[in-house]
């Protein structure tokens, strides 16, 4: 937003007036950004007609399903970008294959133009809230404890579905904050198992990885402490909280860590296997219950950097992440088999997808690469925000299809809310970016309801996507006529910028209006701050080293709360 | 070769002695480069056993096929690199799909690691002679008349198969020279229709393309002639010979051009449609004959640059080449349907592939891009020499398979020679680079017989590929320890060079020995000069403007031959 201030000044007032009147006209409805309303005005009649047919279809499904909406199983892979799983034509490019995900893709629909946010936390926030993370204020969880997280005020998909009769559970990576209000059990999940932090702690700063030198500065054996006047600046990763388990309304406990324990790659691998096993167990329990369920499995793998635990590469690629992608494909195979065994394949919608592009910092070691789209994690380039994404719902979604329609990860919120009969629970007091893509799923290609994406890096709007075009936003004061524009089909790697004159007279100006409309709406519905609170609040069994860490952090933050 | 002279000096003598003795031991056999013999020594026993089984299989096929070996239909697409056809997961990346080639791929085997030479002429020379073009001296046909071509002394696949009872025909692009000995009918084809030159003349310098400004310097309307002391330096494209038709032993005639005619995009499109129609007609004729046939269809499309002839894009990409890829996919669909109608699907091996990467000079206009592997036509990078390649032989080659084994386009010569019962006709007085890959086709993945590729740009050896590694050769005097090396699975775009120490101690030295062995063999079997002769020799109906052009060229070459 800041980078656009100057660029916006001339017409911001006009855009604001327009937005205000349109927004008021929709009071009572879900509040939409301008870009969606522009499409709705042109296609609303067709959409309404389609929606009637879809409602009939969904009612028929519920009738056959004992009056219940479908189960939802959502599998989100960490740092897996476009073309890194499934897509067997790329096996030979990558040097490994993922047979289970490939089979899954054949049984459902491939959303070939799925956009995420460029990093783990923002993608997960967008999926669960249906909003660009910048609106929630929580656009990135740090690798160190910070006392920040997804705010209580945000309404998650788990809350929407819970309100509508779903049993909900979350297993695996969470990465939504280290404060009480942000834990999964406090964001709508009945049951949750998850680490508080992310793989920087779990996979890069574990004792095995330190021995292999993946993160140099943490390993004090190779650093003189002569300059360490501030002993608390360099965090001890082992003092941070690792895995937790909890139930809605109850306490949350750290598990599988003893005081003094140095978390190793073995512990990381064991944690990953437990999450897979817990997913199987939870799914079995949920399948036997009366309620429809919403189960999230967010594996730790494929993020893995150590070599000590690898005996022999199973792939031509041989990178630790590549090897782990094949392993997690095996996990997914087990879960899909269990779905069959439990007899819930036909009444369970399953989505499998990545959360953002590869971490380019580690690509040569890890075995990942920006093989098709340029760029990776943290970047607004297509390689950062395009992922492989597959959805299966036998009998409802045509199998073996690939759709070119644009989707954004926030659309899953709105789509699952509708399919779970929870549309009425979507809040009406804030902008919802997620578009209901039920029509795309049930009616197929060309029935998507989005032709645009706003691409943020953190709180900075960096790129605009509309149809086949993408504009990298110019720096403050930059004239959009000379902004770098790309035709994504002719130049998918965004490495040969064209100015808007060459792409088409008026396009640069239209892109700048698109940004203005989007930002002007924020005057009515401002971006909010993230949730703040005491670090690790509500975790009842902090280890002594953790208590010391908490004490240091609260002191540094000027908070007087005593963690004991 | 020149760039390696210094790099070679130290051990060249040793390598030569080694090569000499090995080569002598194989007198009477096909002469192989050192790299192949190294593999043969390690796998020869297994290969011999496999070959016995394969011979039984082939004998069974011939028995069922009236004693005849299979027909061969070879479709070679111009400037179509890896991932530009078939591979439906990439449709959404490219913005177009090729349903006929995709279906074809599903019915056969995808050779996922097919290497070509980096340009049209050398790929075609390698395929037809089984030799790196540098050995034939004919490594690139110029865009202007030059009096050069594939030498008579080279033994082509058409000659090998003709000798063994095949009827042969070539339709479409040829690009093997503008002298009599180089025309298809003088290189083993019973019947041929082809232009003498290539798309620089046909698609870039046609009157429509000149109006659109694709080639600036040729259009004299926008150039002052004040500096033109030498009136013959800038060639009149319309004076060059266009399409020809001829039969073995007969004359060759230019067709569909009148004196004074200015070849247009309409003429180019009509020529392309005629070649498709002639392929259908020839195939019908050949299918009804007694002999097995070898038919080449080398379309002019997808190379196409003009816009005047496009009414409305059929694809999201909209580039003229992208549009033409879809059109030529339609042509291929017609040809494959005709194969079915003629009842020859089961006894016809069909290969469809590209000849090199996209012409990067035109990518933003054309709609092509180096979407996966970096680089394009003329370059030793994977994007220049990796192509999509598919082979179908119902009942003999397992359908729906993808193989990761390395193949080089010269292997088609040796493989088709074997399948066409013509192995005995492969010459024994020169190095044959093509490896017989029948085992790969009939037995499947991991049965390939090549783990290396020498990548030339023209006569310069630029890269060495071995297994998953690639070395970009250092400049003269450069130490291979610091040469740029790539793990092609971890870094398919060759954009993050690693030195050989990081890839593995000894690898740099082993790569340099690999180059030395290869070059040392040339002391025994030196690279030969190309064929030379009078421009357009043997064409009986040259237009007046062509005669004038020939007169100028022969004068400039110091030849006294009168073209009349």
UniProtKB/TrEMBL annotation, chains A, B:
Official protein name in the record: Arylsulfatase
GO function terms (MF aspect): arylsulfatase activity; metal ion binding
Protein keywords: Calcium, Hydrolase, Metal-binding, Signal
A Pfam short name: Sulfatase
Entry EC number(s): 3.1.6.1
Gene name for this UniProt entry: atsA_5
Stretches assigned to the Sulfatase N-terminal domain: 70-419
Major enzyme class: hydrolase
Alphabetized SUPFAM superfamilies for the sequence: Alkaline phosphatase-like (SSF53649)
